[in-house]
Design a protein that fits this description.
This protein is of the alpha+beta class and 248 residues long. The chain has 3 domains: 95 residues, 2-Layer Sandwich (Nucleotidyltransferase, domain 5); 48 residues, no CATH class; 83 residues, Nucleotidyltransferase, domain 5 (2-Layer Sandwich), CATH 3.30.420.40. It is built from 8 helices and 12 strands. A 4-stranded antiparallel sheet has the order 7-8-10-9. Helix 6 runs antiparallel to helix 8 and helix 7 packs across helix 8. This is ATP:glycerol 3-phosphotransferase. Keywords: ATP-binding, Kinase, Nucleotide-binding, Transferase. One of its GO terms (biological process) is glycerol catabolic process. InterPro entries: ATPase_NBD (IPR043129), Carb_kinase_FGGY_CS (IPR018483), FGGY_C (IPR018485), FGGY_N (IPR018484). Pfam families: FGGY_C, FGGY_N.
Amino acid sequence: TDGYLKMSLKERNLDDLIFGTVDTWLIWNMSKGHRHITDVSNASRTMMYDINRLEWSNDLTEFFHIPESILPEVVDSAAPELAIIDISGSQIPLNSIAGDQQASLFGHQAFRPGDSKCTYGTGSFVLTNTGNHVSMKTNLLTSIGWKLHGNPAIYCNEGSAFNTGSIIKWIRDNLQLIGSSEASEDAAMKSSPDHGLIFVPALSGLGAPFWLPSARGTIFGITGKTSTYDLVRSALESIAFRIKDIID
C-alpha cells in the first residue's frame, strides 16, 4: 500500500488526488464530491493526527510522506449539517460521523470517565472513556472517542482481542466439535470442571496487551481423559481470559 501510494503521488497531479478513511470516501460520494471530511474519531486512528492539538501532525505526515493538502478536513463527530448527502434524489443533512468502536462506546452510553464497554464479534474490543484527559496506558491504544458540537474532545483507551467469535467458528467449522455456535454452551456445561486445559486463542496472533502478531494458538494440558466437551469449554474460557487480560 505504501509503495502504491508513493507511486500515485509521483505520477499524479496532487490537484486531482485526495485521501481519506472509509467515511471520507462515503461522504465524498454521497455528497457528489462537495465534502471532503472525516471526524476526529476516525482521524485519530490514521497515525497522522495529533490527538492533543486536534490537527494533522506535520511530523507524522512528513514521516509517512503524505502531503497535508490531500487530507480531509477534520470535523466534530456531531454538528448540524456536516454534509448534505444525496440519496435517490433526496437531500439529507448528515449530522454525525464516528468510528465503529467509538460509536459503540457512545451507543452504550459510556459518557462518564471510567465507563467501559466490550463488543464481541469476530474479535472483541474493550473501550474505556477517559474524559477530556489523554490517558496513555501501557500496551493499550489511545484515541479520540468523540467531539460534539464544539465541546472539548472525549478520549478513550482501547484493547483489542483478535480472536473471540472466530474461535467459536474455528471449533465449529474446522474441528467440527459442535454442530452450531449455540451448541457450544451445552457442550461446555457437560465438561469436567477440572478439565485442566489452557487454550491460547492466538489464531492470528495476540492483540492487547501483548501485541504479538507471531504468536500461535496452543492447547496445554491434554490427557487421555480430555473430551470434546473439555476442548469446547476451554475455547470459551479463553475468550473470557483474553478480555480479562485487557481489563487487568
